[in-house]
Amino acid sequence: MLLAGKKGIIFGALDNNSIAWKIAERAHQEGASIVLSNAPVALRMGTINQLAEKCNAPVIGADATNMEDLENLVRKAMEHFGGGFDFVLHSIGMSPNVRKKRDYTNLNYAYLTQTLDISAISLHKILQTCYQLDAINEWGSVVGLSYIAAQRTFPGYGDMADAKAALESIARSFGYHYGIKNKVRVNTISQSPTATTAGTGIKGFDDFFDYAQKMSPLGNASADACADYCISLFSDLTRMVTMQNLFHDGGFSNMGLSPLFLDK
Ligand SMILES: NC(=O)c1ccc[n+]([C@@H]2O[C@H](COP(=O)([O-])OP(=O)(O)OC[C@H]3O[C@@H](n4cnc5c(N)ncnc54)[C@H](O)[C@@H]3O)[C@@H](O)[C@H]2O)c1
C-alpha cells in the first residue's frame, strides 16, 4: 500500500496496452484514489470505462492542449477528492507527421506544431493549471513519459524526438518552480520501446524493439515494470528526486555495443 491515502490524475490510458493503463491499475492496487482523463476522441474510441470500473475512478475528458478543458478537469478532480491531489501522470504522445508517415526531412509544420503541443507543451499546460489552482499537495509528484530519442538519433522517431527533448526540458524547468512553491517534484521516465498504440505507430517499431532488447543487459523494460517504477516515484520513498530524466530501459542508455547484438 505504497500510495495509501494518495490521490492523483492519470492521463493517457487508451486501451489495456497503454502504459498509463498499467500505472492506473498499480496505483489502485497500492491504495490510491484516481481520476482518469483522456482526449474526448480517445474516450469514444478506447475502452477506458473498463479501467474506470476496475479502479473505481471517474473519467473526465480533457484535450490536454486545451486550457479550458484542463481547468475544468482540475477543478472537477478537486471537487471529487475534496481538495488537492498528490500525483499526476502525463502519458500523452501523438505526432501527425509520424502518423501520416512524413519523413523528418519533409515535415508538415502545422503538424509539427501539433506534435509539440500534444506531446510536450501539454505537460506545461497541465503543470501551469495545477500551479495556478494550487491543486497539487505539498510533496506531490508529477511524472511524464519520455524516450531516449530526446538525446540520441533514432530516425524513424521523426519529430517526436524534438517533442521528447522539449518534454524533458519542461519537466526540469517546472520542477524548479513547483519545488520552490510547494515541494512538488517533476520528473520524466525514459521508457524502453513498448508495444502500445503510440509505440507501434512508429516506423520500424519491431526493429527498435529487437535492437533495444539485444542491447540492454536486462532486456527491454515492460509496461508493467514501468508501472512499478512510476509508483515508486509517486510514493513518499522518492521525495528528494526532482527535475530528472530517469532511464527505465534495462541498461540500454549506457551501452555502447553488445555481443548479443553482433551475434544476431
Ligand atoms: N510505447 C513506447 O514504445 C514508448 C516508449 C517511451 C515512451 N513512451 C511514451 O509513453 C506515453 C504513453 O504512450 P503509450 O505507449 O502508452 O501509447 P498510447 O497510445 O496507449 O497512449 C498515448 C495516449 O495519448 C493520448 N492523447 C493523444 N492526444 C491527446 C490529447 N490531445 N489530449 C489528451 N490525451 C491525448 C491518447 O489518447 C493515448 O491515450 C507517450 O508519451 C509515449 O511517447 C512510449
The gyration radius over C-alpha positions equals: 18 Å
Q: Which parts are unreliable, with pLDDT below 50 for 5 consecutive residues or more?
A: none
Q: Could you estimate the helical fraction of the residues in percent?
A: 40-55%
Average pLDDT over all residues: 96
How far apart lie the N and C ends? 42 Å
Q: Give the tally of structural domains.
A: 1
CATH superfamily, please?
A: NAD(P)-binding Rossmann-like Domain
- Give the CATH level 1 class: Alpha Beta
Number of alpha- plus pi-helical segments? 11
User: What is the oligomeric state here?
Assistant: single chain
- Catalogue the ligands: nicotinamide-adenine-dinucleotide
Structural class: alpha/beta
CATH architecture: 3-Layer(aba) Sandwich
CATH topology: Rossmann fold
The gross shape turns out to be globular
Description:
By secondary structure, this protein is α/β, with parallel strands linked by helices. It has one domain (7-262): NAD(P)-binding Rossmann-like Domain (Rossmann fold, 3-Layer(aba) Sandwich). It has eleven helices and six strands. It has a six-stranded parallel β-sheet with strand order 2-1-3-4-5-6, sandwiched between helices. The mean pLDDT is 96.
